Amino acid sequence: MTSLLIKRLIIAFIILGTILLVYYSRHLHRTYKRDAEKELTRTNTIESDVVTEQDLADLPEPVQEYLRYVGVVGKEKVKNFRLTIDGNMKTDRDKDWAPVKVKQISSTDEMTRFFYLEMKMKGLPIYGLHAYKDGKAIMKIKLGGLIPVVDSKGDHMNQAETVTVFNDMCLAAPATLIDDRIEWETIDDQTVKATFTNEGISVSATLYFNDQGQLTNFVSHDRYFSPEGKTFKSIPWSTPISDFKEMNGYMLPTYGEAIWSFEDEEFSYARFNIRNIEYNVETVE
Question: CB count, 10 Å around CB of 34?
Answer without folding.
Answer: 12
